[in-house]
C-alpha cells in the first residue's frame, strides 16, 4: 500500500472523527441560528418585512436591552475583578499546591452551576427566609432586607450571576498568569523596578488583552443567560431573554417573529463580544509564546 493511500485513509478517519460534532453543531446551533435570523424579517403570515426590526426600538424592548446590558456589565466587571485576585492568589500568591488544585476543580464545577439549582440555592441562602438572612437577624439583630436589599432585583441577579462568573474568570485567567515568565520579573528587579512598577509597566500590559477578552466573554455569558434569571425573578425583572421567552412561548400577543428579532439583537451583541474576545485572546497568546 502506497504512502499516498495511507495519508488519504488517515484524512478520511480524521474527518469521520469530527463528523458527529459537526453534524451536532449544524443541527442544534447553525441551522436554528439561521432560522432565527430569517424569521426576524418575516411576519406571522410569511410576508417579508422590516417591522420586527423597527419594533426593537419600542421603549419596553429598549429598556429590556438596557437592563440586560447593565446586569451583564456589572456581573462581568465584578467577576473579572474578584476572579483576577483569586487567580493571582493561587498562581503567584505562594499558596500550597493543594489549594490551587482544589480551587480549579471547584471553579470547573461552579462555572457550570446555573439555572434553577443556582436560583434555588440563592433563595435558600439570601431570600427573605434564607439561611444567611435568618442568621443575621437572630444572632446580630440585623435585618438584611431593611437596608433595601432585594434578591429579586437588579442587584440580586447581579450577585447571583457572579457565582458562575468568578470561577469562569479563574479558569481562563490562570493559564495567562502561568504564562508570565520569571525572566521578566528578574529583569525588572535587576533594573531596579519595584513590585508595583513591575506590575504596572510589565505584567499588566501583557495581561491586559487576556483581562479585557475574558471580561467580554463574561459579558456575553451573562447576556445570554435565561434559566437563572427566570427561576429567580420570574417576570419581575424585564431583561431580554425573559422578554424573548414571553414573545415566543407565553406572551398574550404571541408574536414569535418579534421574538426572532429579539434573538437577532442578542446574537449581534454576544457575537460582537465573542469576536473581540477571540481577537484579544490571539494578541495575548502572541505575547506569551
Automatic annotation (TrEMBL):
Keyword rRNA-binding part of the UniProt annotation: no
Coiled-coil region: none
tRNA-binding in keyword set: no
SUPFAM superfamilies recorded: MetI-like
Ranges annotated as spanning the membrane: 12-42, 62-91, 103-131, 151-177, 198-219, 225-246, 258-280
Keywords: Cell membrane, Membrane, Transmembrane, Transmembrane helix, Transport
Superkingdom field: Bacteria
Principal location listed in the UniProt entry: membrane
CDD domains, per the entry: TM_PBP2 (cd06261)
Bilayer topology annotation: Multi-pass membrane protein
Residue stretches making up the ABC transmembrane type-1 domain: 65-277
UniProt subcellular location: Cell membrane
Pfam families: BPD_transp_1
Family classification: Belongs to the binding-protein-dependent transport system permease family. CysTW subfamily.
PANTHER family named in the record: INNER MEMBRANE ABC TRANSPORTER PERMEASE PROTEIN YDCU-RELATED (PTHR42929:SF1), INNER MEMBRANE ABC TRANSPORTER PERMEASE PROTEIN YDCU-RELATED-RELATED (PTHR42929)
Protein name: ABC transporter permease subunit
Taxonomic lineage of the native organism: Bacteria, Pseudomonadati, Pseudomonadota, Alphaproteobacteria, Hyphomicrobiales
